[in-house]
Specification:
With about 290 residues, the chain is α+β, with helices and mostly antiparallel strands. The protein has 11 helices and 8 strands. Helix 2 (about 135-150) runs antiparallel to helix 4 and helix 5 crosses helix 7 (about 215-230). Keywords: DNA-binding, Transcription, Transcription regulation.
Length: about 290
């Protein structure tokens, strides 16, 4: 994996967006290697005591390896693959990979009115180290963020920045899951949604899923509708349809390939469900999207 970092110039068009991306990157640090890379701007380097203070928020995700984190409000602690630490502006912090393991990290720096509100309302600097329960989702969001950060197109900064609240939403959901009783209705529904997302290529056996989650199907269905506003099957179909637009748009799959990838029984059923949900057939939607992107 090649290291990549980008520091964004001020963009007047992004000033009112609420989420302004300032920097982002990903790097692999080998065991015994120097850290951090001296190529970063001076304001981002650590001082002689290994500390630094930034004037921005950052999310730092450890994808592999292990190391140490410490901040003004968090005592020195070990971190490992799946750890996320949140950097708050104006608070000193320091972190580094363990010499014996190195690590692979991804990060994004940001600020903005909406960013400040969300960070202070839903997260605390004294609990800056989190352990994600869905690391592959976070990896995927960083993949997409860094992809757009690398593009040279109008609106690049806003598109890349739109991934930041998604990352934070997953982190917040992880913390909510940890604080809920494992057998509460909310926890059951959360685990059911995760199971559905993991197997979008199949039609879930909902009765078997309820049994796997340790509850009756009637309770499962009632809890699901109360928590989401939708019956389980309708919810599953909706997330498949939302995913289908991504496959058609970004993966350039055909309509039949998309239907097959998402476990629909036929192209006819998929096309009918798509039109019911979005007002256009998949073919019409692809043509319309192609014209808008020209």
């Amino acid at each position: 994996m090649q290291s990549y970092s980008r520091y964004f110039p001020s963009d007047p068009a992004a000033s009112g967006w609420g989420w302004r991306i300032l920097d982002a990157g990903r790097q692999a640090i080998a065991s015994q290697a120097r850290y951090p890379d001296a190529e970063h701007p001076l304001a981002y380097l650590f001082d002689a005591d290994g500390r630094r203070t930034l004037e921005e928020f950052q999310i730092v995700f450890i994808e592999a390896g292990s190391g140490i984190f410490e901040s003004e409000k968090v005592p020195r602690m070990q971190v490992s693959a799946g750890s996320v630490f949140l950097i708050f502006p104006g608070e000193w912090h320091r972190y580094h990979p363990a010499p014996s393991t190195g690590w692979r990290e991804a990060w994004v720096g940001f600020r903005g009115a909406d960013a400040t509100r969300v960070m202070h309302q839903f997260f605390q600097s004294k609990q800056a180290v989190l352990q994600t329960q869905q690391p592959q989702e976070i990896v995927g969001l960083f993949d997409r963020l860094l992809h757009w950060a690398h593009q040279d197109i109008a609106g690049r900064d806003q598109i890349a920045a739109s991934h930041i609240p998604l990352i934070l939403a997953f982190l917040k959901a992880d913390q909510a899951e940890l604080t809920q009783p494992h057998n509460s209705d909310a926890a059951i529904v959360q685990r059911a949604k995760a199971a559905m997302l993991e197997q979008l290529d199949k039609r879930s056996d909902l009765a078997a899923l309820a049994q796997q989650l340790g509850c009756s199907y009637s309770r499962f269905r009632f809890a699901f509708k109360r928590e989401t506003g939708h019956a389980p099957r309708k919810f599953e179909n909706q997330i498949k349809l939302n995913r289908s637009r991504d496959l058609l748009q970004h993966n350039h799959l055909s309509v039949s390939e998309t239907a097959d990838a998402l476990g629909f029984s036929s192209v006819y059923y998929f096309s009918r469900a798509f039109k019911r949900a979005f007002g256009q057939s998949p073919t019409e939607w692809v043509k319309a999207y192609g014209q808008q992107s020209k």
